[in-house]
Design goal:
Blueprint (H helix, E strand, L loop, with lengths): L4 H11 L3 E8 L2 H9 L7 E7 L6 E5 L12 E2 L7 H13 L1 E18 L2 E17 L11 E5 L1 H14 L3 H18 L4
Parallel strand pairs: 1-5, 2-6
Antiparallel strand pairs: 2-4, 3-7, 5-6
Helix pairs in contact: 4-5
């Protein structure tokens, strides 16, 4: 198992209790196949990283399949035998080029991606983090074509609109997660 209940209990001890949400998204067979690609060796989770700088800007990435203007926060999976923190830090490095420090467990999203009677249960763990060095440039250039800093106004405005305009339930999910993350960060004391 990649991320057990015991691992999550330990993550909560280190980074706090997250807001928990439940979502469902209806998908086409082709869209569900994209989710299935992330399930190598039975994986059913991802760790999403809200990397915030001193001005409260956020690091976003763009994948090759995304249209221009469509970005989201970086994410990836913890590998079998890898620690939760180690997996999150590795994914951040691969997707953004940055070394990060995890700070707060923001959201646990329990999601059902559906296509007719077929359902994939998925959990996204969203953590606030900050950069501790590195150069903002993706290392895994097959998966990520661009990493950059975006303002909250960009993420909640044109970036959100670009993600929604794709018509993809998966990208709508990412836009909603990023929006909720920003709402939680905005309500946080500096």
């Amino acid at each position: 198992m990649y991320v057990s209940a015991e691992i999550i209990r330990q993550v909560e001890q280190r980074y706090g209790i997250p807001v928990e949400i439940d979502r469902q998204y209806e998908m086409t067979p082709e869209q569900l196949d994209i989710v299935r690609l992330g399930q190598k060796q039975g994986r059913c989770h991802d760790v999403t990283l809200v990397i915030v700088d001193d001005e409260r800007n956020i690091v976003v990435i763009r994948k090759p399949s995304y249209p221009l203007g469509a970005y989201r926060t970086p994410s990836g999976g913890v590998e079998v035998g890898e620690s939760f923190d180690g997996g999150a830090i590795r994914e951040a490095k691969e997707e953004t080029g940055l070394d990060i420090v995890l700070e707060k467990y923001l959201i646990r999203a329990n999601v059902q991606f559906r296509c007719g009677s077929e359902v994939i249960d998925w959990t996204t763990h969203v953590l606030k983090s900050r950069s501790a060095g590195g150069t903002l440039q993706p290392i895994d250039t097959k998966e990520i074509v661009e990493a950059r800093i975006a303002t909250i106004a960009e993420i909640t405005g044109p970036i959100h609109e670009a993600l929604i305009a794709t018509g993809s339930p998966g990208l709508r999910y990412r836009a909603e997660l990023d929006g909720l993350s920003i709402e939680l960060l905005t309500n946080e004391r500096p």
